Amino acid sequence: MSTKCNIGPLLTLTAAALLSACERPPIEATQTGYRGTGMAHIVNPRAQVADDGYPASLPAMPDSGPRAGDVYQNVQVLGDLSVAQFTRLMTAMTAWVSPEAGCNYCHNPQNLASDDVYTKVVSRRMIEMTRDINEDWSSHVGAAGVNCYTCHRGNNVPEYIWFADANVQSRMATHAGNLRGQNQPVRAVGYSSLPVDSFSTYLTATDAPRARIIPTTVYADGGATIQETEAVYGLMMHVSESVGVNCTFCHNTASFQNWDNSNPARRSAWFGVEMLRALNESYLTPLQGTYPEHRLGPTGDAPKAYCLTCHQGQSKPLGGGDAVSAYPSLAGRP
Predict the structure, then answer these.
(1) Which residues pair with 174 in a beta bridge?
(2) 125-170 tens-digit pLDDT
(3) Helix, coil or strand: residue 113
């Protein structure tokens, strides 16, 4: 006597269960502007960045007592803080930037006032830069502001910085003609064939050329060249990936250049580009002579900031957490 067992339905149910468990999360789209223009904020759960937020703040310290600048030697910034507040901020900065090396990452343990450790000179300028950002660039960073952790995330050197591309010139002329730094897919331009180094053109100085691709007149001289247009698109690819959004987060596809129909985020992004130009020109590029050779780029330039430095895949760095209310000494210049 034999017994037959029909396992077909069982295998079908098992396969269905396994496939449903492997299904990718759906992409969410929220309309942000006029219908039919593609103005939607697209959220891809598979591309979301883990957000741990800012570290817990240290307990506040009193503003009473002697000033740090009167007690310690060679305090060129933050000297307006009380000794207790100064010590608290130094402790927080150590956790933000050098949790493993500790104070000695910036200081000579035999003489804390000495400037013979280059990282101390750099960190001094970075504190000034942070105050500058929070005071003069609220049009981009908002009330949340930034602090050292926004970029460093516990690393001595921020994970995302950029240098001039040393290979652009070598890519310029080949047997195929002048490549203009193109056809070398890299992440910075979404692995496309766009120019790989838009940053040196558009993010290094306040007098850098404006990013314009739409003519303002019927004549060719009212717009931009094809090469300039491609470089701008390369920069926009970087912005989009760095902030974790699609083009319509800022733009109206009915008319990309029209500001009146654009989303408010476009204004914030414009100020962000202006801010990066100012910071790279005033704070980061001038530190070239301070860094040792191993900290410079392949062409000998200093590390610089771009959108990815702070945003790291989020429309608001670290989820838009408050970076300054617990450390008001970083909110602006005294």
Answers:
(1) 177
(2) 999 999 999 999 999 999 999 999 999 999 999 999 999 887 655 4
(3) coil
CA distance 82 to 71: 9
Residue at 9: amino acid letter: P
CA–CA dist 210, 213 (Å, integer): 9
User: Distance between CA 160 and CA 142 in Å, rounded?
Assistant: 22
Q: What is the mean pLDDT of residues 72-88?
A: 96
Whose tokens are 């590390």? That residue is: 303
Distance of CA 80 to the CA centre of its chain: 30
Chain centroid, CA 317 distance in Å: 8
Q: What are the C-alpha distances in Å from 69 to residues 74, 122, 271, 290?
A: 8, 19, 34, 24
Average pLDDT over residues 179-183: 65
Residue 181: partners with Cβ closer than 8 Å, 6 or more residues away: 165, 168, 171, 172, 195, 196, 197
Q: Which two tokens stand for residue 115?
A: 């400037």
Residue 48 — very low, low, confident or very high, per pLDDT cuts 50/70/90?
low
Question: What pTM was computed for the model?
Answer: 0.85
Sign of CA dihedral 94, 99, 101, 105: negative
129: closest CA among 264, 248, 286? 286
The two three-digit tokens of residue 249, written as one number: 């987060």
Output the CA torsion 125→50→312→26 (10° steps): -160
Structure tokens at 325: 């209310």
For residues 61 and 84, the answer to whether their CB atoms sit within 8 Å is yes
Token digits of residue 294: 């191993």
Output the CA angle 311-316-321, nearest 5 degrees: 110
Query: SS3 of 10, please?
Result: helix
φ, ψ of residue 171 to 5 degrees: the values are: -85, -10
